[in-house]
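When time allows, look over one protein, given below as sequence and tokens. The question is which stretches look regular and which look disordered:
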Amino acid sequence: MGGNKVRKFEFFMADALQNDKDCCIAIGAIQSNHARVAAASALHCGLAAYLLLMGERPPVEKGNLTLDYMLGAKITYIPPIFDFQERLNAMQKLGDSLEQRGRNPYVFPVVSPMGCLGPLMAMQETLKQAEMMNIHFDHQFIPVGSGVRLAGLVMGAVFESPELETVGVCIGRDRELMKLIFENLCVQFADIIGLRGDEKTGSSD
């Protein structure tokens, strides 16, 4: 029930377990799907979940916040943070505090090429299902927040359907900044999956 968020947490949690982490840290808005899936993934894998939720604690819990508590997450309310690096810094600060208490925390990345693996697989599945259903499309439009999903879908299209044009629609950040973030993600992701040289994708207008 977490949509595309579950796809990237499959890889994040595998990384956490392989590195012997015993708890994890995520950040998001009060009703964040990302934070809620982090809490569910942690519970499923036997790790404690620490959530930094941006905003004031509401007088009545509802929606994802109710689920966060039901899933056993330990929640701290903080002022809203919009910069990616500042969000990472806030989680790292909590991580340092947990380490001092003897824990071994895993800080979920805010923007990470590892998170592109899930969308890449989603693109492959989508194109395979479209072929089975005899559906053809030559454009796809994607809302862009962090750029991770966009980069993964573009890479998936490179492998499976190079003629497919992907259009990212920025939902909260400057277009030029998002282009830079997207380009950097594609380069880093290409290194992870072993794509080299002329095969690497760039960004479009």
Remarks:
- Confidence is low (pLDDT under 50) at residues 197-205.
- The radius of gyration is 18 Å.
- The domain at 4-107 is CATH 3.40.50.1100 (Rossmann fold).
- Residues 175-193 form the longest helix (19 residues).
